């Protein structure tokens, strides 16, 4: 199993946590897992080098603080495993220009960047993502296509996963069986957490207002305020209704995912009590979930040597797996052998 996250902010947000990261922690119990902080992806838009370095460390610390266990999972930074860029190049040579141009995230991001800010890297971003995933094919080579390779992600990554599957199949057909065909693992209920101020838009690092996002590392005060001020409709009924009550529906999803209580049970619990009590309880739940993660993150960041050692060890293990795949890939593609 493989998944990745970009180090593009000083904290992950609630959408990242519920859509993906919680599953990362759970799946290390049952799968061989590779978790990657994708710094190569983070430079597809203009960036500040010092901020990237800081955010990469914060990202790794948060993942450990959430429960990623470096004994069981391989946690690493993408740029420390050069095979990602190498396979990215090869897969790029199998990707149609039109095919890459149809990616909706590229269309959205390039519209935001404008022509001058839209880089070739942004265009080939999903191809590099395909490389991230396929490098960790269990048992690359003959029989690989039948093996299971799961990718826990939120709904917004579905199209990139489809492209990855297409590229894996295309490579296998053209050059002989090499890659497993990956499967997206998208959580029901929490696949798309929306913005607290704009409940029909995805909660996102690039949101127009910070009031709409809950950061994992945020202090309890602002966290509570944001939830209490979350946009809801003018009614009073705590009821799941995507079309007419997008704000309350989003909060119900968050509540349900964090507490493990089914939505109908929550609707019943808050019948007649209005939005105030519901929001107050949800705020407490969010604070209780993230306070220990914030505290552990700060502790981990205080011991940078240890963090660097964990990442170096993760990169060494990831390279071993990535090299196994690349040996097959280079041979299949027709590159002359290396000693
Ligand atoms: P990124 O860094 O934007 O987000 C990391 C993960 O968080 C999920 N997510 C959400 N889930 C639910 N609701 C939301 N509002 C929300 N916002 C974000 C994302 O779906 C993702 O799972 N392209 C990827 C990074 C990547 C990757 C990979 C992922 C690079 N290589 C290989 C999986 C496998 C991205 O930008 O995620």
UniProtKB/TrEMBL annotation:
Oligomer status and interactors: Homodimer.
Task performed by this protein: Catalyzes the attachment of tryptophan to tRNA(Trp).
Name of the protein in question: Tryptophan--tRNA ligase
Keywords: Aminoacyl-tRNA synthetase, ATP-binding, Cytoplasm, Ligase, Nucleotide-binding, Protein biosynthesis
Motif 'KMSKS' region, chain ranges: 202-206
Cross-referenced PROSITE patterns: AA_TRNA_LIGASE_I (PS00178)
Organism: Actinomadura keratinilytica
HAMAP family, per the entry: Trp_tRNA_synth_B
Class of enzymatic activity (EC top level): ligase
Primary localisation category: cytoplasm
Top-level lineage group: Bacteria
EC numbers for this chain: 6.1.1.2
Residues that bind L-tryptophan: 132
GO molecular function terms noted in the UniProt entry: ligase activity
């Amino acid at each position: 199993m493989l998944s990745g996250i970009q180090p593009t902010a000083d904290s992950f947000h609630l959408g990242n946590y519920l859509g993906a990261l919680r599953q990362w922690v759970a799946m290390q119990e049952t799968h061989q897992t590779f978790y990657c902080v994708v710094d190569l992806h983070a430079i597809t838009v203009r960036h500040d080098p010092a901020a990237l370095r800081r955010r990469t460390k914060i990202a790794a610390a948060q993942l450990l603080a959430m429960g990623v266990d470096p004994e069981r999972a391989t946690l690493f930074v993408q740029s420390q495993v050069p095979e990602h860029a190498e396979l990215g190049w090869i897969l790029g040579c199998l990707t149609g220009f039109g095919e890459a141009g149809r990616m909706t995230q590229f269309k959205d991001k390039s519209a935001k960047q404008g022509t001058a800010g839209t880089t070739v890297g942004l265009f080939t971003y999903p191809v590099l993502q395909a490389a991230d995933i396929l490098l960790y094919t269990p048992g690359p080579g003959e029989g690989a296509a039948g093996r299971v390779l799961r990718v826990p992600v939120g709904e917004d990554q579905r199209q990139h996963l489809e492209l990855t599957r297409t590229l894996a199949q295309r490579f296998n057909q053209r050059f002989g069986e090499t890659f497993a065909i990956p499967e997206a693992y998208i959580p029901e209920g929490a696949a798309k957490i929306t913005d607290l101020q704009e409940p029909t838009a995805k909660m996102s690092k690039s949101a127009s207002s910070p009031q709409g996002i809950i950061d994992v590392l945020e202090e309890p005060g602002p966290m509570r305020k944001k939830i209490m001020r979350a946009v809801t409709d003018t009614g009073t009924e705590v009821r799941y209704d995507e079309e007419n009550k997008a704000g309350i529906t989003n909060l119900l999803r968050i509540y349900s995912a964090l507490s493990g209580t089914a939505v109908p049970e929550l609707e019943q619990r808050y019948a007649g009590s209005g939005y105030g009590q519901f929001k107050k309880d949800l705020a407490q739940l969010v604070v209780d979930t993230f306070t220990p993660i914030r505290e552990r993150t700060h502790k981990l960041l205080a011991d940078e040597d240890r963090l660097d050692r964990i990442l170096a060890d993760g990169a060494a293990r990831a390279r071993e797996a990535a090299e196994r795949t690349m040996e097959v890939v280079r041979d299949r593609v027709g590159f002359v052998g290396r000693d």
